[in-house]
């Protein structure tokens, strides 16, 4: 009997060991090289959904609105956005501008940027009714907070995250909106915004706004929100340092060249001042995962073993930034980083 018990224990231990090894290999295909306790590179930030493009409508010059249908979709709050995985595989972020209570569809809008990186052109030229698109999210890093009053500044397509906020404001709360664009024909949702504002709440400016004139008497307790072109957001931030901003391009900042050691690969790379860690790494390791190249999707997240990081992303938590970085936008604060690659 003791012998049978011993054999059972040995067999059980061997089975557990095989299962543990299988899990370890799944976590790190390069095993037995070092692996993270939790894999981060290429880890999706949220569950992916396949949604039907139920309608496609031009709502202003150069602006297309998409309604994406599904079932029992995750709820969202004003300010949230989706990651859209386009037919080519590009991932782009778009603010939700529909009804947060509608769990059967999501609505987004995008402006065509002819000299952009290709995402908006793909939406305008290739996305059609009846197609299915993969989406991730929703996520919200631009939430509507409780405040005594509100001031919103939107430039062009920057109205998309603001529109659900205006709809959600409690009756009686004081708010105003400065909405600017090239001309009225290019400004999406303008008619609805003006109806929501009634008399005196909405100021529409064609061209560059005079912030000093339009935002001269903002109450001290007001929550200030801004979304639009980088120049507009920079001007509003200069005037209101505590403004809440929504941007879908990484914040520009200066930086020089530095070295990156890839510890597991045994290689040391130079990242020029006008390039990125991602570009340098992919020149050596072409299969390195990446997607948005703007610091939003998290696909290129890598573990940092040594060095101080200049974080320029809009995604990672403080805990994640302690030992990892998004290599598409973030850089070294010093002259050297060591990555677990």
Give a summary of the structure in a few sentences.
This protein is of the alpha/beta class.
Q: What does this protein look like?
A:
This protein is α/β, with parallel strands linked by helices and about 350 residues long. The protein has helices at about 1-25, 120-125, 160-170, 190-195, 210-215, 230-240, 275-285, 320, and strands spanning about 50-60, 65-70, 80-85, 90-95, 105-110, 130-140, 150-155, 175-180, 200-205, 220-225, 245, 260, 265-270, 300-305, 310, 325, 330, 335-340. The termini are far apart. The model is unreliable at about 5-10, about 15 and about 20-45 (pLDDT under 50).
Reconstruct the topology from this structure:
Elements: H1 2-27, E1 48-60, E2 63-69, E3 81-85, E4 91-95, E5 105-111, H2 119-126, E6 132-139, E7 149-155, H3 159-168, E8 174-181, H4 190-197, E9 202-206, H5 211-214, E10 222-227, H6 230-239, E11 244-246, E12 258-262, E13 267-271, H7 277-284, E14 301-306, E15 309-310, H8 318-321, E16 324-326, E17 331-332, E18 336-339
Parallel strand pairs: 7-8, 7-10, 8-9, 10-11, 12-18
Antiparallel strand pairs: 1-2, 1-6, 2-5, 3-4, 3-6, 12-13, 14-16, 14-18, 15-17
